[in-house]
């Protein structure tokens, strides 16, 4: 994957937010940046972050694999995350997840054959007063239910 | 159903939430019309040391769960040490049930920014970071917008309002890891590493971000500061109960008629909060609840009249935590809920220490066995034994917190466990793979 000069400028802008000599702090935001372009954390993305910040690729990979938001494989156009933590679960979140799993024919962390939708269950999304909670590309849908979720997926 | 009585309605005490219903309060001009940045001008008339003394005087305690006195934490920052100082706002909000910081940042982001500026003036920091959980893209966007507005208006940058303070705020998004809410894991994450806790002491106050003195406070702790500066220490103290100054946003979720954020004086009871929230959801009777998220021991219906402040909740055998009140009814099973929480802790364990990494894994398996009707009475002892090996022996609070639902549900609802074990209750799970794995 080629990274344009404009993209590099964005990466440099991120690095400048942090104190002199502490550019490694830019790693998480920079991983978000490469993922927003590439769809997931690619080998090229890892190499890019390593080169910009001046650390090894192994160091970058060790960090990116720690955090659930960094994906190791291509995700669909829509990432559907259903909170199935305890409170959302008892309020119907697990039913929403099951309905989506049934309808889409994919399980947690899997993508539909057409590459459109990736389904995942999420931990508490800090919106429990709107349980059960679902997000699509991190946009929140409150008080959802199985029918509504499947409608949305369609 | 009749609405809450006047007496109970009067218990709502909007301070942090007072602007939430005003349209566009997140915009600078609206915020300024509603007292915004008045506290900052007042604070700059104090010396930094006097401001710290004032915060101590106010009795304000941290809103991130542990309730550590805010003024005392600020006073730990060594002065004239030649090192840069930092303020880090903990906006990782990941404790199951907790949902007060994100709405605050959405509805009133400038109150957080104003609080940050005052705090940085007091502890002589010229750079602040807001570490916000990665999934909260909407709130991060709103914060960045507010930071830009504040900068354009001269509230951030060099020599703010001629106070001599230079300050920049960086909004930094995490990437989905509950453990990064633990303050030292947060620091590692902010430095660009895997988020794993550091040994304390030394505390961040002396060895924090980039090994420099660092104040880490929760969003609510800092957003309260402008209100306290404007209202005065005596006023803040008068709002709460003994050893618990001020108001608190109580988050009600689950089996209640109107879930949501209810800001009241510290020391309000669940009974009063339930009345504010229109009572339990139709057809549901209160069975168990958490006073402050899943890491705080659950309480039973009989505890609904306990004043919700630090000391009284401790006397009742739990922790005030984040005042995330998850309300469960007789339709919900405390054994199953505990199992789900343990799955969460097992998933979020950073793996650094053995008691937490192994303990949560094995306890989860024991719960599956019990919930599938294959448990034994000894399993209950094994669970308590495992908790013994976790509590106080884990490297950080995640491992401690994981024992809370286990020990508290066994304390209040042992019969529910026994019902599964003795076959009085239909198994909830199919875990035939675990039969005989005693
Ligand atoms: N808001 C949320 O989403 C979550 C909150 N929590 C809460 O977190 C709490 C545990 O957090 P911890 O940070 O482990 O609590 P802690 O009690 O160890 O520390 C509280 C604060 O006081 C400071 N402190 C304590 N002793 C100090 C000393 N001698 N010198 C300088 N500073 C000192 C610490 O640095 C920290 O900032 C739990 O009670 C839980 O309720 C847990 C999970 C998530
Ligand atoms: C596992 C774990 C997760 C935590 N998550 C958060 C969090 O999301 N937000 C928060 O403010 N504090 C969290 N804390 C508490 C912090 O370590 C720290 O005590 C707090 O940010 C201090 O702020 P305060 O004194 O203003 O409350 C967590 C603690 C533990 C052990
Ligand atoms: S208690 Fe758990 S989360 Fe904390 S350091 Fe140990 S393994 Fe990591
Ligand atoms: S439990 Fe689902 S958002 Fe909190």
From TrEMBL, chain B:
Q: What class of enzyme is it?
A: translocase
* Names of required cofactors: [4Fe-4S] cluster; FMN
Give the record's keywords alphabetically: 4Fe-4S, Flavoprotein, FMN, Iron, Iron-sulfur, Metal-binding, NAD, Oxidoreductase, Quinone, Translocase
SUPFAM superfamilies registered for this protein in UniProt: Nqo1 FMN-binding domain-like, Nqo1 middle domain-like, Nqo1C-terminal domain-like
Q: Which residues form the signal peptide?
A: none
* InterPro entries, sorted: NADH-UbQ_OxRdtase_51kDa_CS, NADH-UbQ_OxRdtase_suF, Nuo51_FMN-bd, Nuo51_FMN-bd_sf, Nuop51_4Fe4S-bd, Nuop51_4Fe4S-bd_sf, Soluble_ligand-bd
Taxonomy, superkingdom: Bacteria
Catalysed reactions, semicolon-separated: a quinone + NADH + 5 H(+)(in) = a quinol + NAD(+) + 4 H(+)(out)
Identify a single GO molecular function assigned to this protein.
oxidoreductase activity
**EC number of the protein:** 7.1.1.-
Q: Which residues form the NADH-ubiquinone oxidoreductase 51kDa subunit iron-sulphur binding domain?
A: 335-380
NCBIfam families given in the database record: nuoF_fam, PRK13596.1
Q: What does this protein do?
A: NDH-1 shuttles electrons from NADH, via FMN and iron-sulfur (Fe-S) centers, to quinones in the respiratory chain.
Query: What PANTHER family does its record include?
Result: NADH-QUINONE OXIDOREDUCTASE SUBUNIT F (PTHR43578)
What does the similarity note say?
Answer: Belongs to the complex I 51 kDa subunit family.
Name of the protein in question: NADH-quinone oxidoreductase subunit F
Source organism per UniProt:
Stackebrandtia nassauensis (strain DSM 44728 / CIP 108903 / NRRL B-16338 / NBRC 102104 / LLR-40K-21)
